[in-house]
Write a structure and sequence with these properties.
With about 80 residues, the protein is mainly α. Helices cover about 65% and strands about 0% of the residues. The chain is globular. The two termini are about 20 Å apart.
């Protein structure tokens, strides 16, 4: 996903959170998170992402610390 696509996805998520409201936001995020975790190729990737998210929350700092996309290898 490139930066424009990531921005579109983030905007869509923010709009969905607004539509469901503050009370239902944790449920939406939980459902989304589980759906996305299920698409990962292995448990190690899931554990790394969970640890990254937890550390970002506990640090009270910037939370947009996702890794940059890796360019595809030439074929």
């Amino acid at each position: 996903m490139n930066n424009d696509e990531l921005d579109q996805a983030y905007t869509g998520m923010a709009q969905a959170l607004s539509r469901v409201g503050e009370a239902q936001a944790p449920l939406l995020l939980s459902i989304l998170s589980l759906s996305l975790l299920a698409r990962l190729s292995n448990a190690k990737e899931a554990a790394a992402l969970l640890a990254q998210a937890e550390a970002a929350c506990l640090a009270n700092g910037p939370v947009a610390n996702y890794p940059a996309a890796t360019p595809a290898s030439p074929t």
